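This week, work through this protein record:
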Amino acid sequence: MNKYLEDLIKLSKYDTSISQFEPKIENQKAKLATFVETAEAIKVGINSTYLEIDDLKSKRTKNNIHLSELKTKLDSIAKKNKDVTNEKELKALQLEEEIAKEQVSFANEEIERLDKLTAAKEEKLKEFQEKLKVEEEDIKEIRVVVEDTIAQINNERNEVYAKRSELLSQFDNKILTFYEKIKRWAKDTAVVPVKKQACYGCFMKINDKTYAEVLRGEEIVNCLHCGRILYKGEEETVTTEA
């Protein structure tokens, strides 16, 4: 095989490997981000529940104050009853007392309702806190795994970069410029194999003359359809040897 073509294939494979490292790293970060997002959602739930509990307790306090006011009112009515001079005043005081007692009953029921809601919210808060604890423990473990994996990926990437740099140090500048020009639009498919007499970049069938040139591998051959650099795929190698 033509040495320049051989170098182009190696360079293309290095570039393809390099472009795949970042998605691998992002994939690892995404794994951690999923757990972090879950933990953040739980924290939002905890904060919201705290606010709901505070609101319920505030309402309970207001009802307690109202009860105290009603007690004072009932005491006042009881004192006034001693000084009643006629039936009209007595009936007015009895009505006022009845209304106050109904309000006391309603306030006590409301306090009982608020206490039940508060207890339910506090139980929910406890569940949230337990979930958050478990989630944060998982995050610690996953963070270690993710950081180790990313470090390994970076090491592999550095190795590929080193090999690529070594290859480039002995690369023909004209050939490199030619490759970079194609790579600008073809990305990681600047150099592709030919399989079943088709370019594996545009997947168009190449003519017999071009196909024969690719099989010989003596020159750098471009696809007449898309312009990518072609080389003999494994299937063609087996077929040719057979």
